Amino acid sequence: MRINNFKINGFGKLQNKEIELQNGINVILGENESGKSSMLKFISSMFYGASKNKNGKDISDFDKYKPWKTEEFSGKINYTLDNGETFEVYREFKKKNPIIYNSSKEDISKKFKIDKTKGIEFFEEQTGIDEETFYSTAISEQEGLRLSKSSQASIIQKISNLISSGDDNISFKKSMDKISKMQNEEVGTERTSQRPINIIDSKIRKLIDEKLSLESYKENIYDNSSEKERLSIEIKEDEYKKEFLKEIKSKLDNNRIKNAEINFNKNLEKEYNNKISELNKKISNNNIDENYEKINFKNYYISLIVLFIVFVVLLIASPSKFSAIIPVIPMIIIIYKILKDRKYASGMKLTREESVSKIINEIEVLKQNKETQRREAEEKEDKLNQEIEKDREELISKYKNNISIGYIEDFLGKNYDEINKEIELKENRINTSKFRMQTMENNTKEINSKIESLANIEEELMGAEEERDELISLNKSYNIAKECLEKAYAQVKENISPKFTQNLSDIISKISNNRYKNVTITDSEGINVEIDDGRYISASRLSVGTIDQMYLSLRLSALNEVSDENMPIILDEVFAYFDNDRLTNILRYIQNNFKDNQIIIFTCSDREKNVLDNLKIDYNLINLEK
């Protein structure tokens, strides 16, 4: 694999920086504090992201490398795998996942698996190397090899750990003991009682019991909510219907008045028609009496007879004859009235011809009046029918979006009394529904006060269950870690350790000009080196420079064992304590033994450049100061 180029939009102190790399050796030259270490960290962060976890450090990588002068915290890197496939990665470090493009610039991010904590693990899928292994093998950072004599014992221990466990910072036994201890302290087991998993299990059981006792209240509030929603819809619909019915009633009231006017016209027409029929019948039956003002003489005669009877009774039965005179006076008055009225009536008599003519004239007048009433009735009836049809269309248009057409058409055909009855039913139903709504509101407040604790319990239970899931997941992780460590240890002891020992022997022989040849490793004494006379001495007795070379070379040898890809070798100021001979030897060794690996050397001096020039080794120089 090789890195072709990368662009830094903003990362630490670096901004708008583009770097082109080549195969073979690349020397990135820059003064101290010019951003070389930030550039190295940018490369690894493009592959694995910038973690927000401190991981034992004072500050997380994310916070440490936030841009100094810009809000743009992003960049892009282009690389090619050994199979020839080229990829380009764009990453905004504030977001968990980058965007991965293939050589056709198609977004293929979804093709890679996603870890909910780490994000898209594309680079690990492509190379088989996780972030920790990448730092243990492909990258040697500044200060990584700067060891004083007092640190020789520590570095020897690191090399021993690397050979026995595959990692220079891991002792298998100590690691297993530490994992088991952490597992017991951070999770616990069935046998423990006051560990996190036991405490959280007890808490969950208690919360479940409390939740079950209050669960019915939650169901009630749900039922109330559904019923309130249903009633609200029902009230709204009934309000529309009530308004619709009242409009119909108002229009029927107006129609009743107009119908009364029409009926009045029709009744007059009928009355005129009846009078015409009677008058025509008189003429056709020759039943024409003398026509004069009629006076009711019958009543006069009856009154006169009654008074006469009273007079006779008083005259016969009364002891005083004078009392019989009392009815005589009214009798005289009645007789006078009869004589006077007869004289008046005899002067008003008409001839037959005059009476017939008068009737005919009266018939003509009645016919005209009848025709007038008929026309007025028809005109009013036509106008009323047009208004009724118009009202019908307006009501349908107005209410069709809120009331079913069937209901509208049904009640447009009802009479006044039916409409009145339906309005009354709707008002009663609305009032009942509103009363029920108010009752449920009161019940809801009461229930809410009771289930407030249930909501808190559910939230607490959810948190407890999530915590338990995390503990179970953590426990599984510990078990997987121990299982993997055991397998790795067995594999290292069987396969890697002998190869590392042989590689280390070859490396020491080459870089020391055959002064030191064979290397042996024991659990009790660590690393021993064979000297010229055949004796084995502890590696701790070697010079700091030699130990540094051994350590670096061993990391480089491990790189070929951890991945099928020829990974880039990134070195950040690792030769600061190498003298010129050691620097020459190690650069020659790298050139000869890692020809398929891209080499990226970060340095603040011309030493590496000068040595490479003297060795006539081609390299790509990138001067950050230019």
Describe the protein's architecture and organization.
This protein has helices at residues 36-48, 61-64, 122-127, 131-137, 152-165, 172-186, 196-284, 297-317, 328-346, 352-399, 405-412, 416-511, 544-562, 580-593, 607-614, and strands spanning 2-11, 14-20, 25-29, 74-80, 86-92, 99-101, 114-115, 119-120, 139-140, 519-522, 526-530, 536-538, 569-572, 599-603, 619-623. The chain is α/β, with parallel strands linked by helices. A 5-stranded antiparallel sheet has the order 2-1-4-5-6.
Descriptive labels:
626 residues, alpha/beta, 5-stranded antiparallel sheet, 15 helices, 11% strand
SSE map:
Blueprint: E1 2-11, E2 14-20, E3 25-29, H1 36-48, H2 61-64, E4 74-80, E5 86-92, E6 99-101, E7 114-115, E8 119-120, H3 122-127, H4 131-137, E9 139-140, H5 152-165, H6 172-186, H7 196-284, H8 297-317, H9 328-346, H10 352-399, H11 405-412, H12 416-511, E10 519-522, E11 526-530, E12 536-538, H13 544-562, E13 569-572, H14 580-593, E14 599-603, H15 607-614, E15 619-623
Parallel strand pairs: 3-14, 3-15, 9-13, 13-14
Antiparallel strand pairs: 1-2, 1-4, 4-5, 5-6, 7-8, 10-11, 11-12
